[in-house]
Amino acid sequence: MELICPAGTPAALRSAIDAGADAVYCGFNDETNARNFPGLNFSRDELRKGIAFAHGRGARILVAINTFPRASSVALWQRAVDDAVAAGADALIVADIGLMDYVAKRHPGQRLHVSVQAAAANPDAIAFYVGTFGARRVVLPRVLSVAEIAEITRETTCETEVFVFGGLCVMAEGRCSLSSYATGKSPNMQGVCSPASHVAYEDTVRGTTSRLGGFTINRFAPQEAAGYPTLCKGRFSTAHGDGYIFEDPVSLDATTLLTGLKSAGVAALKIEGRQRGRAYIESVVRHFRRALDTLEQGREADIVSLKPFTEGQATTLGAYRKTWR
Amino acid sequence: MDRLLKKQKLAGVISIIIVPGQILLRAIGSDGEMSHSSVASGSLPTIPPLLALVIRPLPLLPLQFALGGFLARILRRNPGLLDRLGQHRRARFGIKPVDLPFAFIVEATPPRLLVLRELPQGLDACVSASLANLLALVEGRVDGDALMFSRQLGIEGDMEAVLALRNAIDDARLDLAEELASLFGPLGEPVRRSFEAARDRLTGSPQEQR
Q1: Whether A145 and A86 share a structural domain
Q2: Between residues 188 and 207 of chain A, which touch chain B (CB distance below 8 Å)?
Q3: A312 CB near a chain B CB, below 8 Å?
Q4: Is some CB atom of chain B closer than 8 A to the CB atom of A12?
């Protein structure tokens, strides 16, 4: 299984490859990718240099152009595709069918991956992307159990890629409007979930209050572990009680499921976190590199706690084991 | 849903009122147990309070002069920092080492650093953490988000400026020992070794960090 690692900066790209990434995914510093945050991502020149660095070390670069083009600005997304292809990207990760059509027609030789943002969660949907646009791989949404992944992979003619570590989204990837409602900016079209321009923290003796677009979404006691300031991980009081009604602030860690994912026929494992620093990239990538190498030798992967890197200082197996059903 | 929510005991809660066409959120706050494991173990050490007390009366101007020159040199040697700061290159950042009796105001363009006893109001953004964590952050040896999750890092003000600063510094791959040594010409090597020894005592060696 390939190890696919995130990079939000050229330095992180080098760190990921040095730590053992088979491939690194990254995006341009604009709205065309789903991690459009200040100071993050790659200029055209940085991408070209990053690809040269990766290829010199036998690694590949996958370029995420995985937001949905707005009707008035399709050219921005098409230009991103053209520039990524010209830079020598090994694959494009795309969510929008219009953009996939553009890639297939304009760059028929370019390897195309279906982004997790496309939420392709069944063999029929995947077959559409493979048959219509020649997609070579699908990144499966984080809503499936290992058994379901095995079944989909069996019935699918392209490769499957799944997340093994990092942040989780609510269970309709590419379709979430929570952040859009609170801030007017869309994670799916502008690439910003909880845009920093709309986030505010306030420290008081009772703890730290986080706000998004003026809405108070959480308050953490002084020593209580925290998560990202997203509405899906806010704490609310409803008729059903008080608590996290969408998601807890935890991160996925599927280290213990690697054997099962390999048996399921998964081609690639993905680490989330293009917004994270080099220290996260190095530690998490090194951990999964070791785990995969151990697995190749026929042994179980060592369990190392990655909790210090996780939201809420807690991990979950997410939908891979649907104990909540 | 009932069972899921009842299992959670919260330190602070928010109310959500759903009415046609809009969602109103209201903080209601309460005390209770944490629903998750607490702050990650392995936190970096802090400056002993006694030492902080001893250095409190020291004049700040010599430190301001030395660090100001150091900042200007780092920015000259790492022009990519300003590129990544982008529109936030003129922001005024307050940096508060929580275990030291003084704080800094840092500006990138033009490069300027002030040392003060307390940070004033009106800064664009403020970052607070222990000196060890701040040094480790500057050198990319800890992850900023992880420090925030474990409540070892406080951030206030313009979050866009904070993110731009964090990402610019992380991409610069700064080696403070190397930057410091470059100031001292032929004497740079012993300066580097001294700084590395002091830094590693405070923050652990890079290998330990990783």
Answers
A1: yes
A2: 196-197, 199-203, 206-207
A3: yes
A4: yes
User: What ipTM did this prediction achieve?
Assistant: 0.92
The residues, any chain, with a CB within 8 Å of residue A63's CB and separated by 6 or more, are A25, A26, A27, A28, A47, A80, A84, A87, A89, A91, A92, A93
The answer on A162 and A191 residing in a single domain is no
The fold of the B49-209 domain, in CATH, is: Nonspecific Lipid-transfer Protein; Chain A (3.30.1050)
CA distance A90 to chain B (A): 23
- Distances in whole angstroms, Cα of residue B135 to Cα of each of A12, A58, B77, B142, B203: 19, 33, 18, 9, 8
Q: Which of A201, A221, A243 is the last residue of a domain?
A: A243
What is d(CA B115, CA B84) in angstroms, rounded to the nearest whole number?
25
Q: A11 to chain B: nearest residue by CA?
A: B171
Contact with chain B for residue A163, Cβ under 8 A: no
Residue A289 belongs to what domain range? 2-168+250-320
B37 and A39 within 8 Å at the Cβ level: the answer is no
Contact A224 B11 (CB under 8 A): yes
Amino acid type, A146: V
Average pLDDT for B111-116:
96
A231 in the same domain as A97: no
pLDDT tens-digit series, residues B121-131? 999 999 999 99
Same domain, A143 and A274: yes
Q: Which of A201, A216, A243 is the last residue of a domain?
A: A243
Contact (CB<8Å) A311/B149? yes
Q: Model confidence over A252-264: pLDDT tens digits? A: 999 999 999 999 9
Examine the domain organization and report whether A154 and A188 are in the same domain: no
Which residue would you say has higher pLDDT here, A307 or A150?
Answer: A150
A324 interfacial to chain B (CB closer than 8 Å) = yes
